[in-house]
Amino acid sequence: MSYAVKEIFLTLQGEGMQAGRRAVFLRFAGCNLWTGREQDRATAQCNFCDTDFVGMDGENGGRYEAATLAARVDTLWGGGERRLVVITGGEPLLQLDAPLLDALHARGFEVAVETNGTIAAPAGIDWICVSPKGKAEVVQRTGNELKLVWPQPDVDPDEIATWAFDHFLIQPMDCADAAAARDAAIAFVMDHPRWKLSLQTHKLLGLQ
Q1: Is 192 among the catalytic positions?
Q2: Known catalytic residue: 114?
Q3: Of the listed 7, 15, 91, 114, which one is catalytic?
Q4: Which end of the chain is more exposed for a tag (fewer CB within 10 A), N or C?
Q5: What is the pTM of this model?
Q6: Contact by Cβ (8 Å): 113, 121
Q7: Is-catalytic flag, 31?
Q8: Strand locations in the chain (E)
Q9: Is 46 an annotated catalytic residue?
Q10: Does residue 176 have a pLDDT over 90?
Q11: Which domains does the chain have, with CATH numbers?
């Protein structure tokens, strides 16, 4: 199998429980909840996405086989330990499979994935972050962290809180009224102490 990759780059993880950790981001092209075209946003199952995942024209983008893709990730990491690759999208589980996981693990990488949870995760992923979107049915209800972008009127956080995750995070939506979203997220966490506030620190720091 070959993989359609939007971009690959070295940065700091900006969100969630691993925020601040050095990581190679591998962004796959494509998503199952939105085409990525602005003319389709209003009718998409996820209509607040802030990421460009269309095409293969980003930094180190292109079509790769498993071995060459793992080698590219390895080259971008360079030297050092605690090797982490974060696989994202779009929706990464449309493409992530056992051969790529094996190739990345063979090079010593811990593999994290950021998914909307509508596709069951393959075995072997080291860190699973699920971020539910609107009315889309979530089938991946276990993992390391559940990151809920807030506010989302079509998502019931009380139901989500029954799922089997180690950490539950609320993240303010990056939208036209970002201040109101931030205040709503803070208020939610103050009323629901099981949840923790997550911020997009990479945007605050001017990182990719």
Answers
A1: no
A2: yes
A3: 114
A4: N
A5: 0.95
A6: yes
A7: yes
A8: 2-12, 22-28, 62-65, 84-88, 110-115, 127-130, 142-150, 164-172, 196-197
A9: yes
A10: no
A11: 2-205 (3.20.20.70)
